[in-house]
């Protein structure tokens, strides 16, 4: 089968890979669409995702949707031709973290698109049937690719215990920030601020539910003024820039919360420790999602019109270099880039 491998920063090659038949309990899926994630862009530009270096060659892509072409023995409730979103995390289900319900930090996790575990920028994938989530007939494959990142946004809201009417500042209006704004809207949050330097992303943020959009240079002053010097109930850092986490600390009210959803490019970033202590802030670190995919699909189905404007660009896998160049350089008003294997 055909696949696109990252072989060096900014460099893909097209190759042929073998594909095994599905074992008992597995399905084989023809991939129809894959979203380009921020962590894919880190691997492409930085040669690492956080503190995890690339190991070349590697197949990226972990926001997939596709159609079943084969089923293994014992698979029930799924058939050839079924369409679905695919969950990229393979859990062991027996470590202490899985047994306590924290599957997203499984001690033996295999995440498809990490080194040694090929992702979905390829024609076919075989994986456990439990990782296949059927989608309704009216949902496109492109829309279904949003299930994985939207599940992360929902997980961040669950960790931070967002309640109806609460005020929230979202830093960064890339795809994960935009999906966080939509999730906040669905959760009944009060006033939502989006902090983003790019004008086209601020426009997308307004469409997805932000009540106010701000350039980072004016954000602290404006949010403090808008909240009567109180600050927001929760600040969610989806940008993970060098200064954005300290900015989130500045936005938050006394006894407020901060959720860190983005992935920093560098392992150590400055924090305003004095303000963090003085305000007695609670900080939540977000590690992907934890069984929120079905909730994400339900939200995508219920509010399809919210999410379609985010799907701005598509490229065939033959043009994956162009897809990543556009997405990594924020060109051409790109929101979410979709690659079609």
Can you describe this structure?
The protein is α/β, with parallel strands linked by helices and 341 residues long. It has helices spanning 38-46, 96-99, 141-144, 147-159, 175-186, 199-208, 216-226, 244-251, 273-278, 293-302, 304-307, 320-328, and strands at residues 2-8, 11-16, 26-35, 48-49, 52-53, 64-71, 83-86, 89-90, 110-111, 124-128, 132-134, 168-171, 192-195, 212-214, 232-237, 252-260, 282-285, 311-316, 336-340. It is globular. It starts with a strand and ends with a strand. The mean pLDDT is 97.
A few lines on this structure:
With 341 residues, the protein is of the alpha/beta class. It is 29% helix and 27% strand.
Topology:
Blueprint: E1 2-8, E2 11-16, E3 26-35, H1 38-46, E4 48-49, E5 52-53, E6 64-71, E7 83-86, E8 89-90, H2 96-99, E9 110-111, E10 124-128, E11 132-134, H3 141-144, H4 147-159, E12 168-171, H5 175-186, E13 192-195, H6 199-208, E14 212-214, H7 216-226, E15 232-237, H8 244-251, E16 252-260, H9 273-278, E17 282-285, H10 293-302, H11 304-307, E18 311-316, H12 320-328, E19 336-340
